[in-house]
Specification:
The protein is of the alpha+beta class. About 50% of the residues lie in helices and about 10% in strands. The protein has a 4-stranded mixed β-sheet with strand order 1-10-11-9, with helices on one face. Strands 5-6-8-7 form a 4-stranded mixed β-sheet.
Length: about 675
């Protein structure tokens, strides 16, 4: 399904998009909870045709990349993808299969919901028979729109189902009063996900726009809608919207996008849009709203007022259709995949229906599934070990702060206060929400999805004006990811990522420190990156820096922005250093912290002997490279460059290393080697 319609609120600074890992044999192996053999590091992955000091990614991972081509169902293939596949298509599948095998399941229980949702997704005969009938109540409402006020009411109702329009609302902790939840408003409504897709002049992006027009036309034809040239209509309106929206780089500024206002200011900024009808349909009641961009609302009001109602109706039918395409008959599903899977990311084939049923169940009932996943696959011993790791990183971070030459003592004191206030969550939530009100039946897939979406909407909107529940999680336990939440000043590590190659309890320390410890350090560093550094120890958007210290920090980050902006990943497509600066800083900081935490762990002990001929210093960097090794299609790479705040996996490996003298020393690199920078050009922040 199209996932580009989510409203972007100032939520979580997450660590990754999917990237890369292998499952070959090695001199070091472990036994996981489900007895699967997993390597520490496989030296056969190394390609000695490359020099470590010229191209560390291809040196460390060259043979792995040759032996692990991208599967036809994927747009990229690496450690994250493989572990995600294991978690979902093996572990979750086993859990779901066991549940569906039970004869009687009580209505409203989580097991009944999981079993019947999964069954409804697999019941393609019923899906084909019903056609687009399940959408008819919403289509009738769209067809009945006669005025802009009507449109506001209908789109407000559809917002509850996750259907996108030009703006959206959501509840989150107030960035300047992080103990209380408040209503946020944000720009939305772009099917292609980012403004650059609507304005770049290169042939590849033009082709995406042309294919998008054809895709919309095809979807309307399949639905039997009479609209004339709907693709051109939708692209035209979305382009006008895109050109008045903030870019994804501008959205990174938490000060610029925090405009605390009374609800009534919405009517002042956009008087021709019926905000009362829009919010009432979403059950939103709020006196205060944090506006993302006032100018956008004023310009959007002018655009909507000048746009014919029929155009707005066509656009809304499109947003409804694309939101639910994955729940409709095969023809819609396949056309949806053709554009968003093949054109946008380069996938050649869809996953099997069973695999997709598992993933769809996970998407809609992720926490109920996560409860079962954590119980079966995440032992308490792992939580204790990760807690120790986190405290080790915290200690080393404090030592690094003390050694900074560009930061004054007064700001260092505040940095220590923030570091000491970091909290963390490991594995899974301590308490679980009640999902019993979600109505799931075997033969009604689309309605099942709607019920889950309505539950999620209500769960979020009910938070407005209430204290923040800091025990709440932003990811399910089975997720292969981690995040830092600046509003809670917390780092969160789901059980899903606390597995090889990220965390391998039987691997040598160097491999684990290059993996999970660098991940932990990465998340800690998010608290001090270009965004996180603007939040204080309590999670409030508040300056705790001296003017000179902030200027020094900005000079360092600007140098790092310039460095990454010079990396061309495909002809005409360079990394956006301003978009990726937060993640790039976190990678650099994460590796630095992990390296010195590893070094500190050896104090008073005998230095580890080489393994497979590699010193502990070298294995540390091999561990980092193993986490990020991967292959990616050109289409997915172009998409990542435009919409993703993370640099491509190859550049997460090679990009930071020239700035680390520790890497140069570990591998004996010399001046003139491609991965060596003069001391004056290295960037050291934390």
């Amino acid at each position: 399904m199209n996932k580009n319609n989510t409203v972007k609120l100032p939520l979580l600074a997450a660590m990754v998009t999917f990237a890369a890992c292998g499952t070959n044999t090695s001199t070091k192996q472990q036994e996981t909870a489900d007895t699967t053999k997993v390597p520490a590091f496989n030296v056969a992955d190394i390609d000695t045709a490359y020099k470590a000091c010229d191209d560390f990614d291809n040196y460390a991972n060259g043979n792995w990349k040759k032996n692990n081509p991208i599967p036809s169902t994927e747009s990229r293939w690496g450690a994250f993808n493989i572990l995600d596949k294991q978690n979902k298509e093996v572990r979750l599948k086993g859990i779901i299969t066991e549940i569906t095998g039970k004869k009687e399941l009580k209505k409203g229980t989580e097991e009944q919901q999981i079993a019947d949702y999964y069954t409804s997704f697999l019941d393609t005969a019923t899906i084909e028979k019903r056609g687009i009938t399940p959408l008819k109540p919403y289509l009738d409402k769209i067809d009945g729109i006669k005025t802009l006020a009507d449109w506001a009411a209908v789109t407000g109702e559809l917002q509850k189902l996750g259907v996108s329009t030009f703006t959206g609302f959501g509840a989150e902790a107030d960035a300047k009063n992080s103990k209380m939840n408040v209503l946020y408003q944000a720009q939305s409504g772009l099917s292609l996900g980012e403004r650059s897709y609507y304005e770049r002049p290169d042939s590849a992006t033009k082709n995406v726009r042309n294919e998008f027009v054809n895709h919309v036309d095809k979807m309307f034809s399949l639905a039997g809608f009479p609209d004339v040239k709907p693709g051109t209509t939708v692209l035209g309106l979305e382009t006008q919207l895109a050109l008045i929206q903030l870019s994804n780089v501008e959205l990174r500024d938490p000060v610029k996008t925090y405009n605390r206002s009374g609800y009534g200011e919405l009517r002042t900024l956009a008087p021709d849009f019926d905000w009362d009808a829009f919010t009432k349909k979403q059950d939103i009641k709020a006196d205060t709203v944090i506006l993302q961009n006032k100018e956008y609302l004023t310009n959007a009001n002018k655009l909507l007022k000048a746009t014919p109602i029929d155009v707005l109706k066509t656009y809304t039918k499109w947003q409804l259709l694309t939101s639910f395409a994955g729940y409709l008959p095969k023809a819609f599903d396949e056309e949806n995949f053709h554009f968003f899977g093949t054109v946008m990311t380069g996938k050649k084939a869809q996953k099997t229906r069973t695999e997709r049923a598992i993933r769809s169940t996970d998407m809609k009932l992720g926490m109920p599934l996560g409860k079962l996943f954590a119980k079966k696959y995440f032992p308490e011993s792992s939580k204790e070990k990760v807690s120790q790791m986190i405290e080790n990183v915290r200690k080393v971070y404090g030592e690094r702060i003390d050694k900074l030459t560009w930061m004054s003592d007064s700001t260092k004191q505040m940095a220590h206060k923030k570091l000491a206030s970091f909290t963390y969550k490991i594995g899974y939530p301590d308490k679980w929400k009640d999902y019993s009100s979600i109505q799931i039946d075997k033969g009604t897939l689309l309605e099942n999805a709607v019920s889950a979406m309505l539950w999620e909407h209500k769960d979020n909107i009910d938070k407005i004006g209430k204290p923040v529940d800091r025990s709440e999680w932003g990811m399910t336990p089975q997720t292969v990811n981690a995040y830092y939440n600046p509003l809670n000043n917390e780092v969160v590590f789901p059980a899903g990522i606390l597995q090889p190659p990220f965390y391998n309890p039987n691997a040598d320390d160097a491999i684990n420190y290059g993996g999970i410890i660098a991940v932990i350090g990465h998340e800690f560093t998010h608290g001090f990156d270009d965004q996180g550094s603007q939040f204080d120890a309590e999670g409030n958007l508040k300056n705790w820096w001296t003017k000179t210290d902030r200027e020094n920090f900005d000079k360092l980050t600007k140098r790092y922005v310039k460095y990454f902006s010079g990396i061309e990943v495909l002809p005409g497509f360079k990394i956006n250093g301003s978009l990726t600066i937060g993640e790039n800083v976190a990678d650099l900081g994460g590796m630095t912290l992990a390296y010195y935490a590893l070094k500190k762990s050896f104090e008073g002990k005998e230095e580890p002997k080489p393994i497979d001929g590699f010193t502990w210093q070298q294995r540390f960097f091999l561990g980092w490279a193993q986490v990020w090794h991967g292959n990616i299609t050109d289409a997915a790479l172009r998409q990542q460059i435009q919409i993703d705040p993370h640099s491509p996996a190859r550049d997460r490996i090679n990009g930071p290393l020239p700035h680390l003298k520790e890497f140069q020393d570990a591998w004996g690199c010399k001046a003139g080697d491609k991965m060596v920078l003069p001391d004056a050009e290295r960037v050291t922040i934390w």
